[in-house]
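Standup notes
- DV: blocked on the single-chain target, sequence here:
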Amino acid sequence: MTAAQRREQLVAVGREVFAQRGYEATSIEELAARADVSKPVVYEHFGGKEGLYSVVVDREMERVLDRFTSALAAGGSPRALLERAALALLDYVEEDTDGFRVLSRDSPGSYSSLIGELARRVEHLLGERFGERGYDPLLAALYSQALVGMVAQVGQWWLETRSPGKAEVAARLVDLAFAGLSRLDPDPALRHERC
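- DV (later): unblocked, structure below
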């Protein structure tokens, strides 16, 4: 194998093992054994487990962000954007299950970074819509975090259940989000304050 081929092999093995076992439970010995190489080969290419993990996470984040960017690039009504965003994540969960597991497993920082990045990409779209409807566009950051977080959390749940079907899950997510967004109070207040 060339050095580039070996590196790609190690990334593929790392993706699979990190998805199955998580970062903490994965050892450099296991990674090397699964790739049928010696430990020094893993160190040579990545400096260790952390370096390999970082490459795997970066690639997965890029994969899912590309899906979201493509889904949102077409524009359209707010409901159409929500539908495409929900389906983009559920498609990723279904088609790149190992990648989603890597991002959502016991990996401090990476999953929250992913959610934050997705929310930032959605924020400008919401901000434009908020301005058009007389809402404070600065609040788009809060709502984009809530919406993306909701879809991502449901994606984690759906990964394990796969029921109901993807289209129904997406439709229900969009219905909940869209119903809430369409009835936003421009100046909400708590109705029952704590004592």
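- Follow-up: The longest helix spans residues 49-73.
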